Amino acid sequence: MRTTSLRLRVVAAVLAMLTIVLVAVGILINLVLGGQLRADLQQWLIDRAGYAQILAEQGLEAQSLANRLTGDDVTVTYSVGGDTVYGRADPTPGADRGPGMPPHAESVPGAVVTQSGDRLSVTQTVAGGTLTLSSSEAGIDAVLVQLRTIEVVAGLLTIVVTWLLLTGVVGVALRPLTRMTSRTSCAPPPPVYRPARRPCCVTTRLAPSGKASRLAQVATNLLGNARNATEVGGSIRTDLAVVDGAVQLTVSDSGAGVPEADRERIFERFVRLDPSRASNRGGSGLGLSIARALARAHGGTLECLGPIATPGALAGARFALTLPRAD
């Protein structure tokens, strides 16, 4: 039976929503973490400028002050008295660069923060001179790249694990429905009692092979669908003939018909071309799917055909049930 798997549709929908959530959470984490790291770097430079004020008050000369503040990816420029000195980190391993920034060092007002490319700079007036500390944000970008890599790998693993679990869970949940449709043990709807507008002729010698109750279920389903599709005052026509050595029952109506693009899809499970009509009359979308399965189980076919342009033909839907003749 050619049907769209309900299990695959459920799993695909859940995985799509999970992917959207993971992407949104990843973007949010990157934005929040990146902003916090840049704010921490800015505050660290401002605090370091405040520490420079303490060193200047201790009488440290300009070059020594600049050298003391240089390092840890921080470059220092100190302009005082018309001279500009540049901080140099001591390359000697284990060299004593003096004590680090004391915990009581506080930022002083007047610090100016500027951004140039990936470098963040803080300018502060210290002891009558201008002190500029700058640091690159490349380290922050590297951390964010590593974080995104971890998020992508973790997200893919999450999607794969979820897919495996969902496939099993949905399969178990739909198992009763699968058994029901495979057995095609649905009770036929009540017979249709409506006076025909014109007499019909039935030849009893055209007896198809198969179990009578199952074939009656197929015919009843086709007649019930025709009744639902036909408005008051409309017509339903049944024709029985031998076509290429097989018995063919054709049920046509004067309703709206079935578009050509939907004539195969209408046999899929849970497909209802008119949801409003189906909900009003209790349709489940399984009738035609089960009817085709019964026809194939008896070696026949069930098709939805287009209307024929012959005198007396109805312009609505036309279903043809073809079965092998009894020997």
UniProtKB/TrEMBL annotation:
The chain crosses the membrane at residues 12-33, 152-174. PROSITE patterns: HIS_KIN. GO terms for biological process: phosphorelay signal transduction system. Its EC number is 2.7.13.3. The keyword DNA damage does not apply. GO terms for molecular function: protein histidine kinase activity. PANTHER family: HISTIDINE KINASE 1, TWO-COMPONENT HISTIDINE KINASE. Keywords: Kinase, Membrane, Transferase, Transmembrane, Transmembrane helix, Two-component regulatory system. Pfam families: HATPase_c. It comes from Cryobacterium flavum. InterPro entries: HATPase_C_sf, HATPase_dom, His_kinase_dom, Sensor_HK_Regulatory, Sig_transdc_His_kin-like_C. Residues 210-327 form the Histidine kinase domain. It catalyses: ATP + protein L-histidine = ADP + protein N-phospho-L-histidine. The keyword Signal does not apply. This is histidine kinase.
